[in-house]
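## retry 2 of 3
previous attempt timed out at serialization; input unchanged, resubmitting
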Amino acid sequence: MLNRQGRPTQAGEGESQRHETFTGNKALQQIEPLIFEIGHHETTGVDIDKPAPFKSRLGKHARQGEIGLPGLSEPEAMRHYVRLSQKNYGIDTGLFPLGSCTMKHNARLNEKVARLPGFSDVHPLQPVSTVPGALDVMLELARYLMTLTGMPAVALSPKAGAHGEACGMMAIKAAIAAKGEGATRTVVLVPESAHGTNPATAALIGFSVKAVPARPDGTVAVEDVKALLGPDVAAIMLTNPNTCGIFEPQIVEIAAAMHEAGAYFYCDGANFNAIVGKARPGDLGVDAMHINLHKTFSTPHGGGGPGAGPVVLSERLAPYAPVPFIHVEGGTPRLVEHKADAPEGNDPFGRMTAFHGQMGMYVRALAYMLSHGADGMKQASEDAVLNANYIRAGLADLMSLPFPDHPSMHEALFDDEWLKGTGVTTLDFAKAMIDEGYHPMTVYFPLVVHGAMLIEPTESESKASLDLFIATLRDLAIAAKGNDKSRFTAAPHHAPMRRLDETRAARQPVLKWEKPAPVKEAAE
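## retry succeeded, writing output
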């Protein structure tokens, strides 16, 4: 008996009924309960001496009961977290096709360099005189970012993309206030296809938002932008390449219209991975753009860990870059940590973060840049675009393209038109991909496309991995069109946890674990 890949199956594989084990484990696929379910309050893997008598200073804030944290022995703790890690999907597990998120391979060379003494152990409170090498790294990273974007200044301290958005828009707000227009320029234009953080960022710092409609081909028309311009408009926040995977063909004209109206052009740089070495945002008229180091330059992505979202600024906005920043005087770099210490001509809008940013991310990104060089980074962009179009070409006869007249940039976008009449939804299709060992692509985004499926393979993937991915999605598409609904509507079948009621989970979240009532065993 052969499976879908033509490989021999073991006896019984594929059958709906399988032998259930007493433990719930299935050989090496082991279940792992919550730590609250397996831990004990009286157990710990660490011996802690009883503290000497002391007088508490907590007063009424002192804990009245036991802390209630579960404890495990050292081997149990190790097994618990190793088993949990085995249930997680990551770029080291397989192809990660999230659209607009650029989950590329993080080269271990970058990790090795970031762990060198002097980088891994540098402390933000060290005297600046003791860390000249760290300042040199920041300067070199800044030089690369400014060269690649064609922009004269960069703020390194923002910690992520949305943080960078806030930085760029706060610089725009400061520039407007400096011109005495803070009370009048209060509107930010945001295309309908934008990332959700764009309108949220504008609103967060006090702007009101007007939507710019998307054309039927997924792009923004300069005529639609001009129709919304007026003395009340402060800026536009435009993603390029946009979230439909298309390079905005009128971006230069849109930038010129904004500048002519006295407004600014903020570019969401989340998709910079598609154009590094090919096009410089500064040449297109961009005034501010954040760069996700974890997307474009291969630093680790996700998990809530340390991030970096530097913001490049045009000459019009450079004076308002936040502290801290590095200023070179007489050939010697100086870290300007306070607004009062800024050199003449600079008027920082404030501070985005407590210290200088995330040194580990700076080192990883710079290691990526140095190991690739200018030609290598350009090729990475070309390969990312090639891979996306290869996937698009491999699936276009089975899955529908909402914008067939535009070639894809770094990501290929499909809609759910091809699923009509099958009883299978975009979500069902995504869940079935889990059974095949793939993390699903981004679904239902961008919102301008119904049932969107946004696939970004990045430049990291080989032709062999892309071929297997395409073949898998073709097999799923043929099954969906062949009325094999059970494969989809109840998927995933083989994941450690079955499909959740996501609507109920969102509306009625359970945020605290409660110990279940004991269940009595039935008498013989």
